[in-house]
UniProtKB/TrEMBL annotation:
CDD domains: CuRO_1_LCC_plant, CuRO_2_LCC_plant, CuRO_3_LCC_plant
Signal sequence extent: 1-30
Cellular location(s): Secreted, Extracellular space, Apoplast
Cofactor: Cu cation
Boundaries of every Plastocyanin-like domain copy: 39-152, 167-314, 414-546
Organism field: Phaseolus vulgaris
Protein's recorded name: Laccase
Cofactor note: Binds 4 Cu cations per monomer.
GO CC term (a single one): apoplast
InterPro entries, A to Z: Cu-oxidase-like_N, Cu-oxidase_2nd, Cu-oxidase_C, Cu-oxidase_fam, Cu_oxidase_CS, Cu_oxidase_Cu_BS, Cupredoxin, CuRO_1_LCC
Keyword Oxidoreductase part of the UniProt annotation: yes
Reactions this protein catalyses: 4 hydroquinone + O2 = 4 benzosemiquinone + 2 H2O
Broad enzyme group: oxidoreductase
Amino acid sequence: MAAGMDFSSHRSLLIIIFGFLGLFSFTVEAATKKYQFDIQVKNVSRLCHAKPIVTVNGRFPGPTIYVREGDRVQVNVTNHAKYNMSIHWHGIKQYRNGWADGPAYITQCPIQTGSSYTYDFNVTGQRGTLWWHAHILWLRATVYGAIVIMPKPGTPFPFPQPAREFEILLGEWWHNDVEAVETQGNQMGLPPNMSDAHTINGKPGPLFPCSEKHTYAMEVEQGKSYLLRIINAALDDELFFAIAGHNMTVVEVDAVYTKPFTTQTIIIAPGQTTNVLVKANQVAGRYFMATRTFMDAPIPVDNKSATAIFQYKGIPNTVLPFPPSLPAANDTPFALSYNNKIRSLNSPQYPANVPLEVDRNLFYTIGLAQNSCPTCVNGTRLLASLNNVSFVMPQTALLQAHYFNIKGVYRTDFPDKPSTTFNYTGAPLTANLGTSTGTRISKVPFNSTVELVLQDTNLLTVESHPFHLHGYNFFVVGTGIGNFDPSKDPAKYNLVDPIERNTVGVPTGGWTAIRFRADNPGVWFMHCHLELHTGWGLKTAFLVEDGPGQEQSVVPPPKDLPTC
């Protein structure tokens, strides 16, 4: 600044500068982020085979959505593919705005070939890593991407600032067209073929044939820390993830800050996200990052490891990477111990507002069954159910039926508890308990508090199930192995700092208890995030009624809402 500038000129300049900064700050905080998603088919080669896949903008995985807490997001989706399409913004709460949530036939009819729909939503009170994916058929096998929500300007992370961030998306790959795989399984009445490889950022890594150029690598510098935003986008596999020779510090899951803890391996279920800090503090070299299935039930899975490279700057690609060390595929004690370490940060700035009183207690059993199917291979078809009800997808979207009072689309008599009690996790039960089918959902009063216990059963087999609730986060207040005991287990709940998330694993042969406040009116899908089980009917929905206030009811639908 010139030495001769007088005070009034100095003050005027400061007013102009701060006025501009204030305008800039407001612009940033109230920004509208616009994206164009073109759903298009593209030929992609993996594992020595080329095949056409459905993509967004020709990219696999799809583009990352970058926003700040408080931003408005508008994503125009134009469908150029032969399949109907819908996109779900996994973990975005969509307050009063189920029209932008995305599950086909739940909150919207799908976007048909040649049509467009704009998802228009606000990101309120959330920051961290979420993701988006197709929510119809098995199309999310290739139609998925990350959502990165930065804190508001001037708000730091509650952990050391990393030098750089990387998104790590874990997925699956099939040689064949995934829709053909799904259709064949349905026609045969059997589980479809498992995937041929896992992927890290769409690439299986050098342990697979023809994959030298299909290997993801991230470059790091000695002594610096990095934030990895890890997403399990696999259709059916819970996964381990580790970096050879390096510890990871977990700082966030499902866009909720955690009490930091250090681990050599994380475990992450389909639908979940985990943010970890990694310090490049080992001997400079190349280190494998690896992912492989966790499965502690007698069920065949794709157990091949996908790998990527954690590469120190200046190290040539000819150096062989250090191998990773992952737990045994069925290491139940590790999985239980790891998940028990995940606690909400519960700081004054980010409190864990756990509902301490419960208005509605729900108990849902998870079961598999075989129903008659004369055209199927064994004369039976596999079904999955909650409380012995296998959900049937409607032909009209549930939210539209609710909002416009269209009769005959659904019933609100989903049972709060199973009609038959039994030793849920005892000896395997092959008898069909008379599984019913229907479009049955639960009606919940606005602002009521709900506790839901999800109980795995040994109907055909026990298995771990990751459950996702749309429109909400919930607190995971308890979990255990065996049968839930309502007289003893609630006394062991963590009501101080339980983790808050949108997708939770029910352990094999065990139970998980969650709590949430039903303060988001609309119709919200709840389902197993194993695509196989969702297709078999392991799903339902909550109809949360409008509240009495002006800002407590579902907003009107957009004009371009697709019709069925």
